[in-house]
């Protein structure tokens, strides 16, 4: 199904560019909003976004533009691929144009002051909009290079899910639907923190057993936290939970993993972030998550350990020692005891 209207993608970084290209390859006319006029002009001229997706040809159906109001007025379906730190600042001033729109956040972050997820911020800014999220194991470069990929669109609004599936589903990109917007979105935000830890472990030369332990204990920890917030633990067994956790904790293409790798090599957080030069949402999530876990009294030793290394001056050896010597725990917290 081809939408009558163009589709807007907000954000000129790697994921916005990858999503814009996918939509255009599916026959959609895409208005790709970015703040940088030079970047928009370069894409218009050269059909490439060299800073964020070097070497990827941008489809002729993608129209880069810097007039946000024009993009929003022309489109009903809007994908939002901005850094979490920019969301309010970009969309609050144009909130009057968002009423009735289908707003789909691809942002994997948490607002520090409020602990709101990005689709909750969209609700706050645009109470009359229809809201969804897109999340899953979706490294932008691999999406753009047509690696076979699956994602999840999540919303209480079934029609929104169907419209997103119709627009994005293609030869190399498969979109599953979920009604659990909160769980899907929370999984995407939480896994970034564990990818930093996995990158650190890789830099220290740790083995495959260690990687597997980290990913599995990360899943236990994030699920425990999510359940405390009222989320459905089963969602964490899907693409946007364990699926995204695996890819981000395993791939040097992940920016969060790269930050962790740099920390493991001995760089400071500031140096690691500067060397990356792109968004690694997990960096901001560490503090927010640590304090929320304490407030809710949820046991999150990996988050606490990472926080201790990055913000409390503890060494990797001290934290690893404390983690390995901690009292043994139960493997799986949420085993149903009836119904089998
Ligand atoms: N890159 C991926 O593989 C990937 C995959 C899925 C989801 N995401 C999520 O998508 C979101 C965006 O990430 P990305 O990878 O595209 O980031 P990126 O680092 O590749 O690019 C960020 C973009 O945002 C723009 N930007 C920054 N501040 C802005 C502002 N105030 N106003 C307007 N534009 C601004 C930058 O100019 C840049 O174009 C993040 O939350 C990320 O977690 C990324
Ligand atoms: O590069 P990262 O670490 O932001 O991860 C990208 C995506 O979230 C992977 O699904």
UniProtKB/TrEMBL annotation:
Binding site for substrate: 108, 255-256
Main subcellular location of this protein, as a coarse class: cytoplasm
Chain sites annotated for binding sn-glycerol 3-phosphate: 108, 136, 191, 244, 254-256
Record key words, sorted: Cytoplasm, Lipid biosynthesis, Lipid metabolism, NAD, NADP, Nucleotide-binding, Oxidoreductase, Phospholipid biosynthesis, Phospholipid metabolism
Residues involved in NAD(+) binding: 11-16, 140, 255
Spans traversing the lipid bilayer: none
Binding-site residues for NADPH, renumbered to this chain: 14-15, 35, 52, 108, 140, 255, 279, 281
PROSITE patterns per record: NAD_G3PDH (PS00957)
GO cellular component terms, A-Z: cytosol
Glycerol-3-phosphate dehydrogenase NAD-dependent N-terminal domain sequence ranges: 7-160
One GO BP: glycerol-3-phosphate biosynthetic process
Gene3D superfamilies (UniProt xref): N-(1-d-carboxylethyl)-l-norvaline Dehydrogenase, domain 2, NAD(P)-binding Rossmann-like Domain
Family to which this protein belongs: Belongs to the NAD-dependent glycerol-3-phosphate dehydrogenase family.
UniProt-listed NCBIfam families: PRK00094.1-2 (NF000940), PRK00094.1-4 (NF000942), PRK00094.2-4 (NF000946)
Protein name: Glycerol-3-phosphate dehydrogenase [NAD(P)+]
Organism: Pseudomonas leptonychotis
Organism lineage string: Bacteria, Pseudomonadati, Pseudomonadota, Gammaproteobacteria, Pseudomonadales
The gene coding this protein: gpsA
